[in-house]
Amino acid sequence: MLFSIPVSGWGMIAAAATGFFMIGMWALPVGMDLPDDLRARIERVRRRPGPVFYVVIPVLAAMVLGVNLLRPEPAAPILFLYSVAFASFPVAVFPIRGRLLKAYITAEQNPDVPLEVDRASKIWFYGFLSAVILVATLALMTTPYGAQHSA
């Protein structure tokens, strides 16, 4: 049922997941209480993000996806895993964005102190992404594709 979607449909889902990733990462500072100097710097970068954000990220994503799609196996599972990975990253970062910002500001104010994120943020980030990987793997294994390759 999961992979009854045609490959062209999974391609559109993968493109939408890439778009969600880019919009989600771009919108992370929206609504946050920021110091004036940091807000000005973020707004300047958001207005002119440069080629790295709008060109390099999609090109690298397309290259990784293209290389994986060259394999002789069906494309739907690869597109599914790609979509899950790209869509889950902004969701994982959103709840801890304030803590990440606080760690960044601390590192900016004290250049000799390395950037260190608190333990709760690390647990949330790694735990959430681990749960996403586990659920995606279980979803993949319950399909005929997963059953045929696990025997």
Largest sheet: none
Distance between the termini: 20 Å
How many individual β-strands? Answer: 0
Q: What percent of residues adopt helix (DSSP H or I)?
A: over 70%
* Overall radius of gyration: 19 Å
Assess the beta-strand content as a share of residues: under 5%
Low-confidence stretches: none
Give the SSE string.
Answer: HHHHHHH
Coarse shape: globular
Question: How many helices does DSSP assign?
Answer: 7
**Overall pLDDT score:** 83
Going by helix content, strand content and strand pairing, the class is: mainly alpha
Task: Provide an overview of this structure.
Helix 1 packs parallel to helix 4 (75-93) and helix 4 (75-93) packs antiparallel against helix 6 (119-141). Helix content is 75%, strand content 0%. The protein is globular, with a radius of gyration of 19 Å. It has helices at residues 7-26, 36-47, 50-69, 75-93, 97-109, 119-141, 144-150. It is an all-alpha fold and 151 residues long. The mean pLDDT is 83. It has seven helices and no strands.
Topology at a glance:
Blueprint: H1 7-26, H2 36-47, H3 50-69, H4 75-93, H5 97-109, H6 119-141, H7 144-150
